[in-house]
Design brief:
Layout: H1 3-19, H2 21-50, H3 59-68, H4 72-96, H5 100-124, H6 131-143, H7 148-171, H8 176-183, H9 190-220, H10 228-237, H11 242-266
Helix pairs in contact: 1-4, 2-3, 2-4, 2-11, 3-4, 3-5, 4-5, 6-7, 6-10, 7-9, 9-10, 9-11, 10-11
């Protein structure tokens, strides 16, 4: 087959999937799943800060909480389908978007959502995993490779950059355009915008701390330092006034969850 014809065919099929009502409806459901997970992570973080409970303040901890609820595994299978659809919708942006940065963003997010869908399927099938153990194992294997420490440090700097970008996006309301593009200018409520601002900043702080921990893991060649989001939040809680800070971040993450659920309604697809 002519390479150009193959590319045109792939673009055609990607465009059909990108516009398909069923794919878009399920993809919106993926944003709802993300919202619920962030609400649960925030709730677990607050419980850790107040000493009223434990658990892992991460996607795995949130998924474990859902799995233990009545009908939880069935709900998780629904979440698997929604996240897979969101991954597919993002993947189609590799072919449907004009700007290189938008195509790159679509590809990266497709990988993130596909990975989360796989993790969710593990819990739905009755298994379990830990974000912290996974992060530690991956870091340990990377450190064992030539230039492994440098790769870990670079990864940490990227995660730190993601956190700082999220803080900037929240502080400047950079996310508002995405919502208004789908809802029409002025139709997005101030409560949703406020939740997005606080949520993005709180999420950014958590990722910034995680990035610093990963950099430290590479610098010290200590994979235990890179133990995931839960470790980052617990590190915050160990600082002076850490319990108060952790409660604030936990509430912020929950607000990001509410924003993500609203985004499922307003975002342009």
């Amino acid at each position: 087959m002519d390479p150009r014809s193959a590319t045109d065919s792939a673009r055609h099929h990607a465009d059909r999937a990108h516009r398909h009502p069923a794919v878009k409806m399920m993809a919106r459901g993926g944003y709802v799943v993300l919202g619920v997970l962030h609400i649960l992570i925030g709730w677990i973080a607050v419980r850790i800060a107040t000493g009223s409970g434990g658990g892992e303040a991460s996607n795995s901890g949130a998924l474990a909480t859902i799995a233990q609820a009545p009908g939880g595994q069935l709900l998780l299978w629904v979440a698997v389908a929604a996240l897979a659809a969101l991954a597919l919708w993002r993947l189609t942006q590799l072919f449907t978007e004009e700007e290189l940065k938008d195509r790159a963003k679509g590809g990266v997010l497709a990988g993130v959502f596909a990975s989360l869908s796989f993790t969710t399927a593990t819990f739905a099938a009755g298994g379990s995993t830990s974000d912290g153990d996974t992060a530690t194992d991956v870091t340990a294997r990377t450190l064992a490779q030539p230039w492994g420490a440098a790769l870990v440090i670079i990864t940490g700097l990227v995660v730190l950059g993601v956190g700082l970008f999220s803080i900037h996006r929240g502080a400047t309301k950079g996310f508002k355009e995405d919502l208004e593009a789908g809802a029409g200018a002025g139709n997005v409520g101030s409560a949703i915008v406020g939740a997005g601002m606080v949520g993005y900043i709180a999420r950014g702080i958590a990722f910034a701390i995680l990035g610093v921990l990963i950099v430290i893991a590479g610098w010290r060649s200590d994979p235990e330092q890179a133990a995931g989001l839960d470790a980052a939040l617990r590190t915050l809680g160990e600082q002076p006034f850490g319990a108060v800070l952790l409660i604030i971040i936990g509430v912020g993450l929950a607000l990001y969850g509410l924003y993500s659920i609203a985004r499922a309604r307003y975002i342009r697809m």
